Structure prediction request, 488 residues.
Amino acid sequence: MDLRARLLVKYKKNIIDDLANENIPAQEDLDELVEIEKKESQKEAELENEIDKTEGDVSDAYLTEHENKFRTEVMIKVMEAIDLSKIGNLEDDEARSQIQEISKSIIDELNIPLAKDSRHKLVQVIEDEILGLGPLEMLMRDLTVSEIMVNGAKNVFIEKSGRLQPSPVVFDDNDHVMKIVDRIVTYVGRRIDESSPMADARLADGSRVNIIIPPLALDGPTITIRRFPADPLTLEGLVGFNALSPGMAEILKAIVKIGKNILISGGTGSGKTTALNALSAFIPHSERIVTIEDAAELQLQQAHVVRLETRPSNIEGNGEITQRDLVKNALRMRPDRIVIGEVRGAEAMDMLQAMNTGHDGSLTTTHANTPRDALSRIENMVAMAGFELPMKAVRAQIASAIHYVIQVTRLEDGSRRMTNISEVNGMEGDVITMTEIFSFERRGLDENYKILGAYKPSGAIPSCVEELGHKGVILDNRYFDPDNEVEG
Prediction:
């Protein structure tokens, strides 16, 4: 029996036990229930005439109070009727099809007074509970949801278009949330319990998941899911969203192609990974790329990519593999480029050494508010790792290794912008010198409170322009004209 089948058998008993403790509503008068359903359907039809609903809206898929009354009874019958050990060995589509058929037949057998659409929703909820992530599945199906935040059983938020909003989706209780947590971490070989109450994982679609549970999370299990589009945004797509100007895109394409080392800086949710994915598209397909991440989320399009992922320690506290371990190992794998999802610790020193020893064109990200702060953070990481090097020597390593710093920012209106591109020039005394190439200048708000501004060239021409010419990449000098600003 494979892992999926064993997990399903395990959850069958848990679900039946939990459902048995719920109060199944007593049989009400059939005519009265039919009348209630008719009234609710009539209200929904009236609302549909008044409101233009978005395709995939979560509220459409969520059970009403009336529909939810029958969920427990149908769920118990379905769980008793199916053999989860066999279901678990089927392909996902076939397993879902069988559960749908069983659920529909039980609803018919119980003569539940629900309209066709309501029955379909009830079947979908049962299917999600058995094979998926329970209530989270309906949020995962909404492609406009970019982030899901579960703050305990009854407090779920989502992010749409860069804005946070409450979700109608709730769990039965915190035990229900923990079952979904257990399902997520088990499938990726992680664990979470009171002795190890934090975990990072990824879902099958590449979404990144962070989980923290009591006693550290005081209001119940907390799940944060960062979703990424199935088709990663390209640099052209980002230009279309006004995240940067065409001139900025052209210089970025050029410096990636010729193998400049780039550090992408920004805050949480600012679009660092999106920018990293977009830039990586211009790495030549002839090169061997090694990616290193805590939770794999990069979506490189090249054929020759080796993906490495860290591993936490086991229950005995052994077996941990850190990013630093992976960076050291990557250097023995004959990489042309090393892409690190995010540097946040001692691996910063190994990354700098790799960039300085022939692995040009490497890319990484870090958390910082400005390009200058980003370099300072790298400096601090090296110092905190215990390397007893003079600060001037560390800064010289940074100035030699990192060629460009890109700053991405999430603004108050929810938009994400590339607010700065700076070139690292070298050292003057003990100070790393930088030249700003492009910046985003804010100029107020429009009538919808969207931030107005312009992408402005500073007038400085990157020092690599001559090298670009030697390698057959010609940039239009108008991109760097201070008068050639682009509204964004």
Summary: The mean pLDDT is 85. The longest strand covers residues 431-445. The two ends are 56 Å apart (CA to CA).
